[in-house]
Amino acid sequence: MRLLDQRALPQREEYVLCRTHGELAQAIRDMVVRGAPAIGIAAAYGLVLAARQLAGEGLSAAPFLEGLRQAAAGLRAARPTAVNPAWALDRLLARAGCLADRSPREMLAALEDEAAAIHEEDVAGNELIGALGAALVPDGASVLTHCNAGALATGGFGTALGVLRAARDQGKRIHVFVDETRPLLQGARLTAWELVREGIPATLITDNMAGHFMRLGRVDLVIVGADRICANGDVANKIGTYGLAVLARAHGIPFYVAAPWSTVDLLLSSGDRVVIEERAAEEVLGYGDIRWAPAGVRVANPAFDVTPARYVTAIITDRGMAYPPYTESLPALAAAAAHAEPTEAR
Ligand code: MRU
Question: Which atom of ligand 1 is found nearest the CA of 277?
Answer without folding.
Answer: 1
